[in-house]
Amino acid sequence: MDMGTTTKALRMLDFFSLTGPEIGLSQMTRLTGYNKATALRLLTELVEYGLVEQDSDTKQYRLGSAVLRLAHLRESSFPTRTVARPFMKDCVEQSGECCHLALLDGFHLNTIAVEDSSAHSTRVVIDAAVRLPLHATASGLAVTAFGSQALREWVQTEKLEQFTSSTIVDPAKLEPVLERVRTTGLAESPDGFEIEVHGIAAPLFDAKGLAIGSIAIATPSSRMNEELRQRIYAILLNASANITRAWGGSFPASFRQHIQT
Asked: Which stretches make up the HTH iclR-type domain (predicted)?
């Protein structure tokens, strides 16, 4: 595959998160906007690389075993989840709420680990298959505020999707939110991506001091109060510092003031 074809084919993998475990050619054509011949050619090439499988009976497509192999190789060479798990468990134990870890992938975030809480009968359930937008989630806002210039330019120039009535899509209104994140070291998104979900997140940094991911706690909005908010603030800043150090990352000067060194 040439580079352009490779990019188109790999982008098709994202659409498997929008459907059930399997997807048909006609549905993939509608989702991608490609014509049927192009969609079939790209799916066939993905099948050849083991990234996609086709059921011989239903002719439906699903993610292939090569995806698991690549995920294993990634975790073996850079054990992000393994290293972060103990700190995520601490977040859940101390807050009584769900915790999730996300990594930047282009102009979205992918959830790579979730730790659930059994402290409450009503709790947020995180769907790891759903990609997190930069502008509508606490995780996305945390990464954008402390990430590359390209991320900030993207949210200023793209047509942003309105997920709920609380989603901020106006760049002029989004910039003060990002500035507040830089000031506090934390991002909040009350009902911005899902109704009745209040997310709070802290950024995670690479060796260059750029945000590449986030650690977040999600709670039902009805349970959020000032005491819980302040507790989550302290929990997440501590977790951010610990995970960043464990990953071999470094803190930019704008964030170093928020953590204990």
From this structure: 3-65
